[in-house]
Amino acid sequence: MSGERQTVAGAYLQIAAHEQLCAERYRGINEKLSWVLGGMAAMVLALLAWSLVQLYRLEPLRWRGEAEGPRAAAVEVSAPAVSRTR
Fold first, then answer.
1. What is the mean pLDDT of the chain?
2. 9-37 burial, b for 16+ CB within 10 Å, e for fewer?
3. For 69-85, what is each residue's pLDDT tens digit?
4. SS (HEC) of the chain
5. What is the pLDDT of residue 43?
6. Radius of gyration over alpha carbons of the chain, in Å?
7. What per-residue confidence (pLDDT) applies to 74?
8. pLDDT score of 48 more than 90
9. CA geometry: angle at 58 spanning 55 and 61, to 5°?
10. For residue 14, what pLDDT is reported?
11. pLDDT-based confidence at 68, cuts 50/70/90?
12. How far is the C-alpha of 31 from the C-alpha of 48, rounded, in Å?
């Protein structure tokens, strides 16, 4: 510490300067945070829009599938060869 004598008025001036510095820092953080939150909200909306487009594009396939009805899969089953040797 310096050999100068601290006064109450000087202490209040230092506190005021510190408060001003903190206010500037907070303002900068708040501005950046608002940009980040806005970007995240835009990304969520874009993802929602993309998913709705995907569902809309699949709708004709669903209608066509329902119109054709369920299809039975043809499976050919053959019995295994059995040898009877004694």
1. 83
2. eeeeeeeeeeeeeeeeeeeeeeeeeeeee
3. 666 555 666 767 777 77
4. CCCCCCCHHHHHHHHHHHHHHHHHHHHHHHHHHHHHHHHHHHHHHHHHHHHHHHHHHHHHHHHHHHHHCCCCCCCCCCCCCCCCCC
5. 98
6. 37
7. 58
8. yes
9. 155
10. 94
11. low
12. 26
Average pLDDT over residues 30-52: 95
- Terminal C-alpha separation, the chain: 110
**Hunting for tokens 């940009």 — which residue is that?**
35
CA within 13 Å, CB half, 86: 0
| Cα(4)–Cα(2) distance, integer angstroms | 5
DSSP summary character for residue 76: -
Q: How far apart are CA 55 and CA 45, in angstroms?
A: 15
Tokens of 77: 């089953």
